[in-house]
Design goal:
The complex is a heterodimer of chains A (403) and B (242). With 403 residues, chain A is α+β, with helices and mostly antiparallel strands. Chain A has 14 helices and 11 strands. The chains are: A alpha+beta (403), B alpha/beta (242).
């Protein structure tokens, strides 16, 4: 549609941006850097939180009971799947089952595997008791027709093998019957077998494997506990520690705290970088804006001389800066999203945190926040140049420019 | 059309006050071509700034079409300039990021409801002889071409008053006379023109001539014959005063 005037304000702004490429590039790059840093911080936090929520929800347990000396190892198995083998007295499990407030308890045995053909690194084998399990069994209920029978194995999303194929651990062959959905937590790098098969595998390992595996029959690695509805996990955990000396308990909130603690250093670094960049950017962009405005002072004065109100000049300066802020921020957010998505596994492994791609809603919110800051910085950085422009005497400026 | 009554403009100089314009009075009737002649530093450009409302007087008053511009707000003054006054500066004052046609259209952004359209801009560019150069950026235009684009820009909103500050100062003689011919034609079509120059040879174009010296303004009695060169189509005689 064409209007009477046929030349519009956006056209003027667009021409000013396109035909001042150096300023445009510097501004877009600066805004992109700020937005990318901020978006990365937000993205990592959202990814870790969502991963943890999903992982903890899949675990289904309110309390994790581990040997006192292996609390950190147990936590690390849960969160990152770092392989570990540790045990405590099986009698402890029987005590836990009978404690008040404990609705269900299920023991698990953690076995660090050797290298297998499926994986670039050893994976965590988790032996479960099918009679009491409420972790894998929940998944099995969601996938009717799948059962965890003799020599069957269920694999995490990070373990590369097709359902229906075989996998060998310690020389024992397992048949893959299912693969869990991705959570971003340790479960992704874990495989699940029955207690009995783990004992058989350990027995055969002396002949079949490069190194022998020993799993004592009267010991377990962890006990997962589901509390009675309405009971506080913390009070039940206290009860368990009193009843079974030599154990540590990790509650759901404790896992969240642990991850938050791990993330704290990272987020401090990222938010710190964002603040540092913002603090440097405001005066830097302000100076660049002021320089550009100074360079354009005669042009701006001329606009005022031919009838532009101060508000019109302010609109031009603001519209140009905000266009650059939005363009740069979107470019920064887009680039950061592509890089973060591409290096997701690398991030998870190198930062040792549970991590999954944040939901679309979380990404939109993260992107929104990452967009707002540069726009605000852009607005603030134009204040001084705007002040210069509105306070100048247009005719004096024009005449000073005369040869 | 324009009444300047006892206007003084003082600036604070180093250790003393400088009167750039000293008690100047001026009357410009509708359809007149008034030339203000003076050497550099005589205060003629400051007087032009006062007439256009770009400079606030220290004392005295300036009226345009009956409006005392000293009483107008910044915004009202800007609206008056956008609607009623076309401004041509000594330097072209074109926006370097816009091609010629869009430079001409810039004032249309400042005067909603004015007559400026793209087709009118093309017509005006054709009138100043720049049909083929409408897409050219200022950096690729000659001084004369830039000046003609600036004149086209001054005319786009159909102002009743054209103010020109040394519009031919940096041009060669041929181009200078082409521009002056154009001004003369516009004047003959009814446009009121106030122009300052340091070149006495241009006095022949004026219907009324003022001379400015050290801030003082004086009316020069006519006629004002050309000294070196008479423009080809320069018509003699001035329209009657309002």
């Amino acid at each position: 549609m064409s209007s009477r005037h046929e030349f519009h304000f956006p056209g003027l702004v667009f021409r000013n941006l396109v035909n001042r490429p150096y300023r445009t590039i510097v501004f877009v790059f600066s805004f992109a850097l700020i937005a990318a840093t901020l978006f990365s911080s937000q993205y990592l936090m959202s990814g870790a939180r969502e991963s943890l929520d999903e992982g903890v929800s899949r675990l289904g347990a309110d309390i994790l009971v581990v040997p006192e000396d292996y609390a950190a190892a147990g936590q690390s198995v849960m969160m990152t799947g770092e392989p570990n083998t540790f045990f405590f007295e099986d009698s402890g499990y029987r005590k836990i089952s009978g404690l008040p407030g404990v609705a269900r308890a299920s023991p698990q045995i953690y076995i660090a595997t050797l290298f297998a053909s499926c994986c670039a690194a050893p994976v965590q084998m988790v032996a479960i008791d099918p009679e009491t399990d409420f972790t894998v069994s929940v998944w099995l209920k969601e996938n009717p027709g799948v059962t965890l029978g003799k020599n069957d194995i269920i694999i995490g999303s990070g373990v590369i093998q097709d359902t229906g194929r075989d996998l060998q651990f310690y020389g024992h062959t397992f048949h893959v019957v299912g693969q869990l959905a991705r959570t971003g937590m340790g479960v992704d790098n874990s495989v699940f077998v029955r207690f009995e098969d783990a004992y058989v595998m350990a027995g055969e390992s002396r002949q079949k494997a490069a190194s022998a595996l020993v799993i004592p029959r009267d010991r377990v690695s962890v006990v997962l506990v589901k509390t009675d509805p309405g009971r506080s996990a913390v009070s039940v955990a206290d009860e368990i520690r009193r009843a079974v000396p030599g154990t540590r308990t990790i509650v759901r909130e404790g896992l969240l705290d642990a991850v938050s603690g791990q993330l704290e250093a990272l987020t401090r670094l990222l938010y710190g970088s964002t603040v540092a960049i913002a603090v440097v950017s405001v005066p830097l962009l302000g100076v660049i804006s002021a320089m550009v405005t100074h360079e354009r002072r005669r042009e701006i004065s001329l606009l005022r001389a031919i009838g532009a109100k101060k508000s019109f000049v302010a609109r031009i300066v603001l519209a140009e800066t905000l266009s650059l802020a939005v363009t740069g921020s979107l470019a920064g957010i887009g680039s950061a999203a592509v890089i973060l998505a591409g290096f997701q596994d690398f991030i998870r492994i190198s930062l040792e945190i549970p991590f999954t791609t944040p939901s679309a809603a979380a990404m939109i919110a993260d992107g929104g926040i990452a967009l707002l800051l540069p726009v605000a910085i852009g607005g603030i950085s134009t204040l001084y140049p705007l002040l210069l422009v509105t306070r100048s005497e247009p005719y004096e400026t024009i005449r000073r420019g005369e040869p | 059309m324009i009444e300047v009554l006892g206007v003084t403009k003082s600036f604070r100089g180093p250790g003393r006050e400088v009167r750039a314009v000293d008690d100047a009075s001026l009357h410009v009737g509708k359809g007149e071509f008034v030339l203000i002649l003076g050497r550099s530093g005589s205060g003629k450009s400051t007087l032009l700034g006062l007439i256009a409302g770009l400079v606030r007087p220290t004392s005295g008053s300036v009226r345009i079409k009956g409006n005392d511009i000293g009483l107008l707000s910044d915004n009202s003054l800007a609206e008056l300039r956008a609607r009623e006054i076309g401004f041509v500066f000594q330097f072209s004052g074109l926006l370097p990021t816009l091609p010629a046609l869009e430079n001409v259209l810039v004032p249309t952004l400042l005067c909603r409801g004015g007559p400026g359209t793209r087709s009118r801009a093309r017509e005006i560019l054709a009138r100043v002889g720049l049909t083929e150069r409408e897409d050219a950026y200022p950096a690729t235009l000659s001084s004369g071409e830039m000046k003609r684009v600036a004149i086209a820009r001054a005319l786009i909103n159909g102002p009743s008053l054209l103010i020109a500050d040394e519009p031919t100062g940096d041009l060669d003689v041929d181009t200078e006379y082409e521009i002056m011919d154009l001004f003369r034609q516009l004047n003959l079509e009814g446009m009121t023109i106030v122009m300052v120059t340091h070149n006495p040879d241009l006095a022949c174009f004026a219907t009324r001539l003022y001379v400015m010296d050290r801030g003082k303004l004086g009316l020069e009695p006519g006629p004002f014959p050309a000294k070196d060169r008479e423009p080809g189509n320069a018509a003699a005689g001035a329209p009657d005063d309002e």
